[in-house]
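Re: beginner question about structure tokens

> Can someone show what the tokenized structure looks like for a real chain? I only ever see the sequence side.

Sure, here's an example I had lying around. Input first:
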Amino acid sequence: MKVVIAIDSYKGSVTSLQAGEAAKAGVLAACPGAKVEVLPLADGGEGTVEALTVALGGHLVEVDVTGPMEEKETAVYGFMEETGTAVMEMAQAAGLPMVPVEERNPMKATSFGVGEQIADAVKKGCRHIWMGIGGSATNDGGVGMLQALGWRFLDKEGNEVAKGGQGLADICTIDDSQVLPGVKETVFEIACDVENPLCGPKGASAIYGPQKGATEEMVAQLDAGLSHFADVAEAWLGKSGRNLPGSGAAGGLGFALTAFLGGNLKSGIEMVLDAMDMDAHLQGADVVITGEGRLDGQTAMGKAPVGVAKRAKEAGAVVIAVAGCTEDAAVACNAAGIDAFFAVTDRAMTLQEAMDQKTTEKNIKKTTEQAMRLYLAAKKEK
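And the corresponding structure tokens:
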């Protein structure tokens, strides 16, 4: 029997690989002779760097960057030297959790550090970058990122505009004469699971600005700034990109990555599964075990476990999901390809206890073992 395990991290508790190894122990307790393969899993958000770097045999690189509020931070990305490929999460350099709630201000928050990550990889010879762009603290249209790569955005007096959303309305001229060599030859694949345009009622500012600290007045200013930036950029580039689904992702970073860097926006989980050659791993699998910290209605709308389930069903496998907790709406996951799902918490306990690493690993092992025993019993009855 072949069992493939690909479980997303239980955030704040266990990593993808820790969850996978715990599930493997459960499978082998129920079926000692099974061939079990554990794969790291992520969907373009938190954990993507680790998952893809491990899967592709690379190593992690640390780089000093400018954080969203211009503080000094250390970002980590994965680098595969043989193929000249890097794996990044923009949240490593400009993520919302990096800024305390009381200090959040998208008028000032910058994506400059994201460009510093890219620059570091390009200088190392990278010419292929995968980047997840969820969870940003910024609303600067990616201008900060481009500034770090050598683009200059000048006001009517020829001065560099201020960092953050506050500088967008002042952009009059764009200069690319000092862009870092190699950047324009680099291929960008962008993990993006939202379809918001850059501007308007469904744009970056209106939908995501408030959670980044924007007041109602700020939202209007930021949206107008992004619209102005798009006008100037599109005149300079000779093409339009503001209405591209996903251009409003990460405060407009999606716009900069596609319009200026030629990036391709893709589903995060599909990008990860393709990179890992998941279809090849699933060949001949009898059972696939997946899951995440919370299984709910959002899971069924395309998050990592359902991405795995879809491909597993195409390969003819039974799909079992194990999760830290499950909500009533998680029943939609059954129609999305997960044959059965189980919450691993086995008794009443505090959240702190439930999220303890050792407790979670023990519960994943126990739950997986019992799920496999049920599968084997049902198979025997046939």
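Each token stands for a local structural state, so reading them left to right follows the chain. The CA atoms of residues 374 and 380 lie 10 Å apart.
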